[in-house]
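Hi D.,

Good news: the full-assembly prediction came through. Inputs first.
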Amino acid sequence: MNKLLLGRYLPGDSWVHRLDPRTKLMASFYYIAIIFLANNWQSYLLMFAVTMAMLAASKIKLGFFLRGVRPMIWLILFTVVLQIFFTKGGPTYWSFGWLAITQFGLVNGAFIFMRFVLIIFVSTLLTLTTQPLSLADAVESLLRPLRKLHVPVTELALVLQIALRFVPTLMDQTTKIMNAQRARGVDFGSGNLFQQMKAVVPLLIPLFVDSFTIAEDLATAMDARGYQGGDNRTKYRVLNYHRADVFAGLAMVVLTAALVLLRA
Amino acid sequence: MDITFDHVSYTYQAGTPFSGLGLKDISTTIKGGAYTAIIGHTGSGKSTLLQHLNALIKPTSGTVTIGDFTITSETSNKNLRPLRQKVGMVFQFAENQLFEQTVAQDIAFGPKNFGVPEKDALALAAKMMPLVGLPEALLERSPFDLSGGQMRRVAIAGVLAMQPEVLVLDEPTAGLDPAGRQEMMQMFNRLHQESGLTIVLVTHQMDDVADYADNVLVMQNGELVRQGTPAEVFADPDWLRQHSLGLPKTAVMAEKLAAKGFQFDPLPLTAGALADQLLPQIGGDARE
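Then the structure:
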């Protein structure tokens, strides 16, 4: 359970950590989008260098980001292999029936691999340097204009925040219940598919029961403290853009321009 | 079945930056047939120690020997089932582990996993009910219809039904009312006395330690800082307070009486022992 890196926040005080979560969220999405602009080795090299610079700025060890890639490695390799075998064009190095390895295929494979790794690095950077609750705040703040269309933005944000808040709690509870059932002779993750599915029942039912209890308790606690939803609530954590955020935004613009110049 | 810890250390999430020390160089033996209490304040490593008793976690370094089983960091997760059957474990808030449709099915779940045929397992379940103080009429009810205290008893019955040789209890009475607490502790003690069940109890109730345990292990920051009989461990009240642990109520009472001029040697830990030492002294006072 604890090996899951997604959503793990690493406390720190780097330049990246201190950026406004809205900036980080928007910049990450934007960055992932412009990775698709890169289409030759020069532009990929630029993106790689910029990504490495951002990782370095976070003062987090590279190992963390590599660990983020690990669970995806089979998916990446599968896609890369498909690219290599099924892209036609350029000199052919090897062929067997309808399979062929061509120059274009190899180049495309390398690009796809690079694209995957960069996207994972950047999204890992976002989650490692931003507290989940700050991200939820950022989403709420960014969606605020939708209130004009009567979208219940604050309620949605509350749901998101509560969900994020209880991820660690439920993970703890999962570990506890798994231990209790293992002590009663359940083997998780062994046997055939049917046996494994059966082994999950004694885990899922207590988890559901527990989640409902937690939800009820939380609702009562919120009621008891007079919680009222609505758009006029003030916030404990107030988000403010600073000079670094403006700089980050400008950097994205410059990067886009450079990419457009470099791409073939 | 003795349980021996030989220089056992455990690191949480070893090899990641989230790593934290759980246990530090623990060496001790829990004798088969003994009633051992583990005390220490929250976060001292008690629960981590417990999970080593049936290989739910394996030592990062060192060896745990449980009867014929030797557990090291290299031990494979396969073939641990016989060990889990021998060491029954009642976790904190054990009622959270209930999931079956009926109480009987839930109690029979453990034995069935260890190869007891369904019919025999259900018979075992029925046998466990009076043992934990539940009426047999509840057998066909859903465990989720019961009160919190009853659910706890069903969960304990589910562990007892595995017929373990060692019973590990992690604060089994937390959140129960005083009567239920006492009843349950007496039930464990009866099992210990009558069927020679080895008991390992984690608790914050010093009275339970004084009343039932033969041996006490004191944990602090993942280290075993003291071990001995309750008399030995409770002989040093100042040391206990420094480690945010208390004394049994009787001992506290005795200390207060000692401040008023009564003499105690050794410090009585149970109500009976206090009465025995107090009686001649009251008789003496009356004559003065």
